[in-house]
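Internal ticket - ligand job 167, heme C:
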Amino acid sequence: MDKPTLLSGTGIRAGVMVLLLAVWVAACKPDRPASQSTTPAGRDASSAVAENADPSKGIGQVQHVTLNTPLEQDRIKRGQAIYEMKCQACHRLDETRVVGPGWAGVTKRRKPEWIMNMITNVDVMLDQDPEAQKLLELCLTRMPNQNVSIGDARDILEFMRKNDGEE
Ligand code: HEC
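stdout (C-alpha cells):
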C-alpha cells in the first residue's frame, strides 16, 4: 500500500513541477518583449517633468538627435559663429578649463541629447541632472541661460563634433 502511494505522490509532485516549469518558461518568453516595451512608456507617463527615459540624455525637450556623417558644413559654420559670440568667454576648444570646462572630447563624454539639453535647458539641468551638478561643483559658477534655440544648439553640437575630430 505504501509503495504505490509514495510513487504516485512523487509522480504528482514531479508532474506539478514540470507543469510549473512549463508555465514559467511559457510565461517568460512572451513577457520579456512586452515588459520591455511597456516599462519606458510607463516611466514617461508617470514623470511630470520633460524627463528623458534615459537619464544619460539629460532633462529637457531634446529626446532624440540624429547625427549625420559626413558632418554638415553649414551647421559647423553657424555653430562656430555662435560659439565665438556666446560661449568662447567661458569655454576653450581644448581641454583647458576657464570658467567652464574645455570642449575637447565633450561629444565623446556626453550623449548629443545631453549636450543640447545642457545648452537649451541649463537651469533645470543644473538643478536636477546629476552630471551637470558634478560640473557645477567643479566649476563653482552657474552657466547662464543664453536663450539658445534648439536649432542653434544643434549647430553648436555639429561644431563640437568637428572640434572632436569627426569628419
Ligand atoms: C559665463 C560662462 C559661460 C558661458 C558664457 C557659457 N558657459 Fe557653458 N558652462 C559654463 C560652466 C561654468 C559650466 C559647468 C557647469 C556649471 O558650473 O554651470 C558649463 C558647462 C557647459 C557644458 C557641459 C560641458 C561638459 O564638459 O560636459 C556645455 C555643453 C556647455 N557649457 C555649453 C555652452 C554653450 C554652447 C555656450 C554658448 C552658447 C556656453 N556653454 C556658454 C559656463 C559658461
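Auto-summary: Residues 112 and 157 are 7 Å apart (CA to CA). The pocket of heme C is lined by residues 82, 86-87, 89-91, 99-101, 106, 110, 115, 118-119, 126, 135-136, 139, 141-144, 146, 148, 156 (CB under 6 Å).
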